[in-house]
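tl;dr need the bound structure. longer version: we got a ligand (manganese (II) ion) that a collaborator sent over and nobodys looked at where it sits. i said id run it. heres the input, straight from their email, havent touched it
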Amino acid sequence: MSERELAYVQKHAADLMNAQEKAKCEAYCDAYKQYLDASKIEREAVKEAIRLAEKKGFRPFSRGLKVSAGDKIYRNIHGKAVIFAVVGKKSLAEGANIAAAHVDAPRLDLKQLPLYEDSEIAMLKTHYYGGVRKYQWVTVPLELHGTIALKDGTSIDVKIGSDPGDPLFCITDLLPHLAADQNKKTLGEAFTGENLNILAGSWPEEGSEKERVKASVLRLIHEKYGITEADLISAELEAVPAANARDIGFDRSLIGAYGHDDRVCAFAELQAILEVENPEKTAVCILADKEEIGSVGVTGMKSYAFECFLEDMCDCQGVKLRHCLERSYCISADVTAAFDPNYPEAFEKRNNAKINYGIGVCKFTGAHGKSGANDAPAEVVAKLRRMFDDAGVIWQMCELGKVDQGGGGTVAAYMSVRNLVTIDAGVPVLSMHSPFEVVAKLDCYMTYKGIKALYASK
Ligand code: MN
Ligand code: MN
């Protein structure tokens, strides 16, 4: 064997792709950007995914419904998560090909009693959701999205800021002229959770005597939504960055947007399953909620909602769920950290994901001594190598940053606990969890190709 054959050399995607493939990548990314703009929060990401899937013939799957090979079904989980499946020719006793991504993203949630007035300015209290670096969220234009559930069982969707004519919101910060004390604090101390209060108005209600500005805001909310302050108690309102997905760089090779983590993998799965026709094994696409806070809650990946769905399908075929799970294969499709030349000290160059080197495969995640990781068995890694190489997927092996620098988790550990072999793979991201994350188009496209390869696997 030659020296070149003996060594493993990673190649930049530019050296591996032809013009036809590049054009496909561009078209795929255009569709992804549209999906992102329609999906600023998890509920919208689920709604948009279902809308796209129904156009392709997917139908809601209710218990007892008969399913046969080729059927395209889905289950909406409380409007905040969704599972799609295309029924395979083989029995579920032979296992399914499963991909799991999440559609929640770090953000600022409004508290249940958010509105108050201070110094004749109306403000909204927030409680941050997921891992946010608080300093990144001040002086950033914000939109307000979510839902208000009413006592009568109905609910009202809220979406303020996505129309060009809409007002926006923001959180103020100190001017440099008066920041002497703040400048002495550490980055982690200078911005506190209780200080992330959103500007909500400043003009007083006519004829009102005290808290006149709050009164005016309540009046406007009532006029628009017909609700009172008490109704906000059962609302989920999320402040998210007010910017749509845009190409980045002179060469437009990157996409900047809020919420790539993990809608970039969610869309890859979605697009892949929308194209599945009569697979050998049943293909399953999970878009989960709550990953950013530990996959908790009824819509998170620890919830039995997943078993419920899969068991209902197994029941149709007289198959035991546990037999299906132990023969299935799962890709936990979640983003990883891309090497950032501005911060080389946080990364280990030889084992870090690089933008434009394809979908990043992580054998393990976790922190310190792999604590909290899934750590996929070597055989599971080998199967992924085979699947991706056979399908011409450009991929790279990686781990998240330097040992003991930090760490992170995905849904992988909660999939494998079900006796379901699982491996992490997803798009490398710059500025992860910030209001404006950046990914390379090529890596988005290769993640979609990777999931397609999984669904085609026999
Ligand atoms: Mn993620
Ligand atoms: Mn995340």
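gonna send this back to them w/ a short note. The pocket of manganese (II) ion (ligand 1) is lined by residues 102, 261-262, 291, 334-335 (CB under 6 Å).
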